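Quick one, tokens below:
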């Protein structure tokens, strides 16, 4: 039996060696195409997706010429520049392109031309041509109309001509190792390369390319581009390496080049190395959702390509599937994910196209929880998805802690109140200095937000986004935290309540910070303990940022003030300052309007699918009452902090106390809208050391942290 297996395997290898070396097989074989054609005949959603694909191919090249104001669909004359430069240097707003050559600031009306603005448009032209090439090649496969294959071939031939003339350039227009030819980064070059390789794979048997043309495409584009991206194995961020590996794999599998495949999958920083070193409890080590999903796209493509050659990376590297599970652990009730580190707040259900591919490969039922939120119209669902999906019962999201990745998700079992605290590793180049930071969601709105990121080309990105004071945590002596890894100290999920305690690790050399959070259906209690490590008194700034409007409820006499310090404080505007020894009380009122999906500025479109993914949201209102227990010589600052998503600033409050041992005890109580004047919001008092009491309309809660967590509710 064993021998027969070996013989079959040998026969398979031999036949593949001859037949598969140069036949269409990168993502879809001719058999797959036939099956997908049948699917489109049976399923309306698949039919609609195919129609859209053919329409996209039909619209080219007219769509390209109209969008860019060009006389033909030729590639750009020079390589593209970094997308992050496409912002007005004066107002920070993204520029608007007016074809053929104007880049207009929507605020000032000023036109910006020359490098880098025109070259960002060149990058977009490369993107568009890569997309059009794949769409045309796929349209050919599904219709067998040679016209589409010829359009795809023309794009490949054009690049075979111009690609060798592009100059090596990086994001700063220097010939650096992480630069590209068609793009300014190996990242974008790799994404584009996958499309070019796949196009070649789809049409090379269509008799639209001559032998010399094939030779030219392979030797002037595919091989040099693979060599170019692979040589950047220095210190690019991890998600970039995922794309480099995928780009190299695409060329390797297309040309049956084993050394390229080996480098991409088994190389020193290949696919397997990434899976074994950069995934912790399912979380991508960069700690930013934009980048995790970005990496997942590349990793999924690599697994798809390998699977076609009989290597099941889903089975061999289980961390790949774990990456698909982890978002559910910190998912906010509206489907969005916290904007931790350099990320927007992407919607998980907007990633269902990726989950379609993963489900088809693994049949893991957990993935259905994401897919069932999206309509099955994505191109990935049509091309790669399971023909039919079983029905599932949506599981309730539950509280969860991830000690190694450093997230604690506290959820109310009976309301949408959710708090997620972050205390894990820094996250590399895209990390923020924000140990013990948290986001808070209630009544349909992320009230306490993370600043996320502005476009990297803007000064505010460096000056604000990653700073400690920009986060809902504690700054010491006005300084930014150091890169640090915090530690989970306690965790308990009780009946109707959840509590966590963590410390900030070595965020500050001269002080230790510990935060305890208790969540019940109506409020969050935050207890902070700040201790000097060097015997000297230090200044502790407790910061909180909440969207909407801010009103001081207590009677603190506030006067205008200006922060003259750096580390992000310089971006705090309309500041008022006051002193008090009694409780600090503030009210925040927020409204969420329906909008497009959240900005995800660090993830330009990267797949074969160019369709926009919108998330519609309903109007929501929420109110949050903040009450912090008073202490002598407390300073309070209020004002506005920058917002990445709009011109509307985000109100903040900073409570400042100085000493060697400082505590903050804060109650955040949320409600759907303003409480009637007769009913009081929950009220916090200190019963004794380490024991706090919260009086609500339902009774009194007593929370003690002396020996572990103790919680007691006494009804009225
Ligand atoms: Zn952040």
């Amino acid at each position: 039996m064993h021998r027969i297996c070996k013989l079959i395997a040998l026969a398979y290898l031999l036949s593949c060696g001859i037949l598969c070396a140069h036949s269409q097989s990168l993502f879809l074989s001719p058999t797959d195409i036939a099956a997908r054609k049948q699917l489109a005949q049976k399923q309306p959603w698949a039919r609609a997706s195919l129609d859209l694909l053919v329409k996209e191919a039909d619209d080219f090249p007219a769509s390209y010429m109209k969008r860019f104001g060009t006389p033909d669909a030729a590639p750009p004359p020079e390589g593209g520049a970094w997308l992050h430069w496409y912002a007005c240097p004066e107002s920070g707003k993204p520029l608007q392109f007016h074809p053929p050559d104007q880049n207009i600031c929507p605020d000032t009306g000023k036109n910006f031309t020359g490098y880098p603005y025109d070259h960002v448009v060149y990058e977009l032209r490369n993107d568009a041509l890569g997309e059009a090439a794949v769409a045309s090649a796929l349209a050919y496969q599904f219709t067998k109309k040679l016209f589409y294959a010829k359009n795809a071939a023309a794009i490949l031939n054009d690049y075979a001509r111009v690609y060798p003339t592009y100059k090596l350039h990086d994001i700063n227009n220097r010939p650096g190792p992480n630069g590209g030819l068609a793009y300014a980064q190996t990242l974008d070059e790799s994404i584009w390369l996958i499309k070019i390789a796949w196009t070649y794979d789809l049409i090379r048997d269509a008799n639209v390319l001559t032998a010399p043309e094939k030779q030219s495409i392979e030797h002037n584009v595919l091989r040099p581009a693979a060599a170019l991206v692979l040589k950047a194995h220095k210190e690019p961020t991890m998600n970039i390496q995922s794309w480099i590996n995928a780009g190299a794999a695409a060329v390797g599998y297309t040309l049956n080049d084993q050394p390229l495949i080996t480098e991409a999958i088994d190389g020193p920083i290949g696919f397997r190395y990434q899976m074994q070193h950069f995934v912790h409890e399912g979380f991508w080590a960069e700690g930013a959702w934009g980048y995790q999903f970005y990496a997942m796209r590349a990793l999924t493509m690599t697994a798809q390509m390998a699977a076609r050659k009989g290597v099941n990376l889903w089975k061999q590297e289980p961390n790949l599937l774990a990456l698909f599970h982890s978002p559910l652990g910190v998912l906010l009730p509206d489907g969005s994910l916290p904007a931790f580190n350099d990320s927007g707040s992407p919607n998980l259900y907007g990633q269902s196209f990726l989950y379609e591919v993963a489900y088809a490969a693994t049949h893991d039922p957990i993935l259905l929880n994401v897919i069932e939120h999206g309509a099955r119209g994505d191109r990935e669902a049509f091309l790669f998805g399971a023909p039919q999906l079983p029905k599932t019962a949506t599981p309730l999201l539950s509280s969860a802690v991830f000690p190694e990745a450093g997230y604690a998700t506290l959820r109310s079992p009976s309301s949408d109140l959710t708090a997620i605290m972050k205390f894990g590793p820094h996250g590399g180049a895209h990390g923020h200095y924000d140990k013990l930071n948290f986001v808070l969601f209630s009544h349909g709105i992320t009230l306490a937000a993370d600043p996320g990121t502005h476009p990297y080309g803007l000064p505010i990105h460096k000056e604000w986004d990653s700073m400690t004071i920009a986060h809902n945590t504690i700054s010491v002596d006005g300084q930014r935290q150091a890169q640090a890894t915090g530690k989970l100290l306690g965790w308990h999920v009780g009946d109707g309540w959840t509590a966590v305690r963590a410390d900030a690790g070595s965020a500050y050399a001269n002080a230790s910070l510990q935060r305890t959070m208790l969540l019940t259906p109506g409020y969050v209690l935050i207890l902070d303990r700040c201790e000097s490590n060097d015997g000297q008194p230090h200044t502790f700034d407790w910061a909180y940022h909440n969207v909407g409007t801010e009103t001081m409820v207590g009677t603190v006499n506030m006067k205008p003030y200006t922060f003259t310090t750096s580390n992000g404080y310089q971006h705090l505007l309309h500041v008022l300052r006051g002193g008090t020894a009694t409780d600090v009380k503030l009210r925040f009122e927020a409204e969420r309007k329906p909008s497009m999906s959240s900005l995800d500025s660090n993830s330009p479109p990267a797949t074969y699918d160019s369709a926009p993914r919108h998330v519609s949201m309903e109007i929501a209102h929420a109110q949050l009452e903040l009450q912090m227990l008073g202490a002598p010589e407390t300073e309070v600052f209020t004002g506005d902090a920058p917002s990445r998503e709009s011109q509307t600033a985000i109100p903040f409050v900073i409570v400042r106390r100085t000493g060697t041992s400082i505590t903050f005890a804060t109650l955040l109580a949320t409600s759907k809208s303003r409480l009637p004047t007769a009913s009081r919001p929950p009220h916090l008092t200190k019963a004794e050391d380490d024991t706090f009491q919260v009086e609500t309309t339902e009774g009194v809660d007593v929370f003690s942290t002396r020996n572990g967590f103790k919680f007691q509710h006494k009804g009225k």
